[in-house]
Amino acid sequence: MFGDRVKQVREAHNYSQVQLATMLHVSRQTVSNWENNNIMPSIEMLIQLADLFGVSTDFLLERDNRRSLDTTGLTETQCAHLNLIIQDILQ
Question: Which residue of 20, 31, 63, 73 has the fewest C-beta atoms within 10 A of its own C-beta?
Answer without folding.
Answer: 73
